[in-house]
Amino acid sequence: MSKVRVHNVTISLDGFAAGANQRLDAPFGDGVGWGDELHSWFVAATEDVAAGKTGIDADHLARGDRNIGATIMGRNMFGPQRGPWADESWKGWWGDNPPYHHDVFVHTHHPRPTLEMAGGTTFHFTDEPLETVLGRAVDAADGQDVRIGGGAAVIQQYLRAGLIDELHLVIAPMLIGRGERLLDNLGDGIDGYRVSEMVTSPAVTHVALVRR
Amino acid sequence: MSKVRVHNVTISLDGFAAGANQRLDAPFGDGVGWGDELHSWFVAATEDVAAGKTGIDADHLARGDRNIGATIMGRNMFGPQRGPWADESWKGWWGDNPPYHHDVFVHTHHPRPTLEMAGGTTFHFTDEPLETVLGRAVDAADGQDVRIGGGAAVIQQYLRAGLIDELHLVIAPMLIGRGERLLDNLGDGIDGYRVSEMVTSPAVTHVALVRR
């Protein structure tokens, strides 16, 4: 049976996955440079994986792509626009050949036509309920697992609903002060989870949550 | 010159130092057993220190008592009562011989007479401003450092005011979901701090914040 997994979601020491006021010229929100600092471990680990190196960060990063057949994300992760689409020229942050290579379901109150990209990535835009979208993603994954890509609000919704099987998050050694907290507004959903791993590399701390 | 230090403050993975509704029969607030779970590393490390053992947790724990000449705490850390003192029979959580053995300054809107305990601990109750209380504590420390003992609200106030030199906190691998967040409401105070250490033992992750 397909698992629902979250991987490589980076938060600051004070718990923020993104700052306030995300927008096109500041995809992680207000503040200079901290979006880069927050994800610097990710960039370094990506280079390590590409070079065939192993290590705590590279191993955790690579795990996130293994056996994933479909991805679900929030509209804010797909793009910086809010409200109705002014036009449909925006095709995501990732260029013509996005690094998914499978079906990606984008939760949005403003659906638009399905978008087929090079390399096998197809973006589906939907305002259906979580369970319906997850069902479609499981079908699309065809026996592989489904990844919830983010952002924080979407992960919270799936966690609160108890729909996530494994959540890997990464604590970066920095303070942001304000923005969007990942582990917040979880209600009783969190009672079903326990920490199964906590390990620190020279750069960050990796934490895994799994069902009790 | 005296430093102002915070040590061994334990927070959950989701950032809480205490739950909601702290009271006499639930000093860490609502919820069964998690106060014990949050601090289980502390109990084990205390036993290790007493037995002369070393290790990541024991070493961090012991550091918190080194070269400390005075302690500052909030009234909620001194006791579970709120509002005016019904009587003054409460003498803290720690019995007749508290583990401080120096002057302890308790921030409270409801001052009461100074309380001399066995073993050299003297509790002073004050509604003076942070800077005044810190000045008194520095004098009392007589060349040694001053420790801010807690709870979360008092640590936040000193951090926001930029008055803390070193902050050692401990992340326990558990979720609490609601309560009092330590790294919250810090305003621009946090801009003066950086993470100087992050290390994980088999039990917890230790993090140190210092001035930039």
What descriptive keywords fit this protein?
homodimer; 212 residues; alpha/beta; Dihydrofolate Reductase, subunit A; 9-stranded mixed beta sheet; 6 helices; 23% helix; globular
Secondary-structure element sequence of chain A?
EEHHHEHEEEHEHEEEE
Main sheet specs of chain A: 9 strands, mixed
Distance between the termini of chain A: 18 Å
Query: What fraction, in percent, of the residue positions of chain A are helical?
Result: 10-25%
Assembly state (oligomeric):
homodimer
**Strand tally of chain A:** 11
**Number of discrete domains of chain A:** 1
Low-confidence runs of chain A: none
Tell me the name of the CATH class of chain A: Alpha Beta
Pfam families (chains A, B): RibD_C
Protein name (chains A, B): Dihydrofolate reductase family protein
Domain Bacterial bifunctional deaminase-reductase C-terminal (chains A, B): 8-187
